[in-house]
Design goal:
Largest sheet: 4 strands, antiparallel
Radius of gyration: 13 Å
Strand content: 25-35%
Oligomer: single chain
Shape: globular
Distance between the termini: 21 Å
Helix content: 10-25%
Amino acid sequence: MSETEAPLLQLNGVSVVYDGHAVIDDLSLEVGRGEFVVIHGSTGCGKSTILRLFAGLIDPTKGEVVVAETALTSSTRPSADGSGAPWAS
């Protein structure tokens, strides 16, 4: 990723808690356009949760999820028909 190009995907200080258990705790991650990333880990470590965050299917308990320079919130999250998805435009 170049110094001037914004990342395509970002997690900024993200935490996700399910039933009082922290699945992800204060994770920050940047993925640039054209980069390939592997998310590897044991069962239950949060791999699918990270993908759900980027897809806008869940909200983080804390922190910010950014896709294509758009912060995902309840008002910017894609609807069931895919409208509002910043990566689909």
